[in-house]
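fwd from M.: "can u put these together and see what the complex looks like"

so here's what she sent:
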Amino acid sequence: MFNIINRIFGKGSAGSKDIAKERLRLVLVHDRVNVSPQFIEILKEDIVRSISTYMEIDEKGMEVSLASSNSSVALIANIPVRRMKRGASFYND
Amino acid sequence: MSEVIVVTSGKGGVGKTTTTANIGTGLALADKKVVLVDADIGLRNLDVVMGLENRIVYDLIDVTEGNCRLKQALIRDKRYDKLFLLPAAQTRDKNAVSPEQMRQLCEELQQDFDFVIIDCPAGIEQGFKNAIAGADRAIIVTTPEVSAVRDADRIIGLLEAAEMHNPKLVVNRIRPQMVKKGDMMDIDDMIDILAIDLLGVVPEDEHIVVSTNRGEPAICNEQSRASQAYRNIVRRILGENVPLMSLELEVGLVDRLKKFFGL
Ligand SMILES: Nc1ncnc2c1ncn2[C@@H]1O[C@H](COP(=O)(O)OP(=O)(O)OP(=O)(O)O)[C@@H](O)[C@H]1O
Ligand SMILES: [Mg+2]
């Protein structure tokens, strides 16, 4: 009802620009990844580097990819953990 | 101090040639010596938009292949004596010239001109690579549509890969009424998504069609809103700090330009 009133007075979210913006945002996530094929590889290396402080991981079994639904894009990382480290870095001493 | 600027877009038909013609004419009106280079080999248009189509003898490929000297191929625009055009070849294709040849050509033109403005063909292939080869900086033209902005994003990435940083954006064919109704992306939306500096905003304007019919760039018709927009763009290229005109503001823009000019 409120929407209808808004539409009559030409206000509110009745316009199509938000749809355009959202579609553009999503399509660009994929475009920008595809532009540089090394992107995922570089990202993987960075993830490995930062995680290695805390745990030992199986780099060969690691999978990183982008998955999208209608309204969002998610970075999906499947990283097999071999063992946790017992390092001092767990504690804020 | 001479500058080579390429006007590019990715998507076709968004207003590269119109922008090139108007910016170039505006710079000449500001007493700069300007040459417009039509790099759209095989689909030349800039000559017609400038109303100089009947004066072509030699073209860009004649120059690169050594059939004539550079000076012989340059057409002087009699209306503005500091404005010149180097037309594209119409019967050849993009592979008739190489990026290296374009680089040399731009270097040679720089000796004689304050501004070399290159009208880039649509697409991201050879013609695009040729057009950007000799340029110092780029102006990217887009319209407020998903497909055009998407292509602009691609172009920004390709320019970056070619080590041409900090391109500036011109948003063409904005319709303030539609923006107001929420049916057209506004300037902030596009700047935000593309993360680049804004050079100016040109409204949808019938005068553009009329002036293209006549072969007289719209910037000369002070009545037109597009003319005002192009004049502002020219002043910004010359380093002036020009606030957005009210029409530009109407389309919902904050002070991006101030930021751009470091104020
Ligand atoms: N602001 C505007 N208002 C109205 N019409 C416009 C505007 N800008 C461009 N046009 C029209 O849009 C059409 C395409 O413009 P133009 O030829 O400059 O685009 P282009 O990007 O050079 O195209 P191409 O990719 O084919 O080279 C022309 O008919 C032109 O008159
Ligand atoms: Mg064109």
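replying to her w this: The CA atoms of residues 104 and 134 of chain B lie 7 Å apart.
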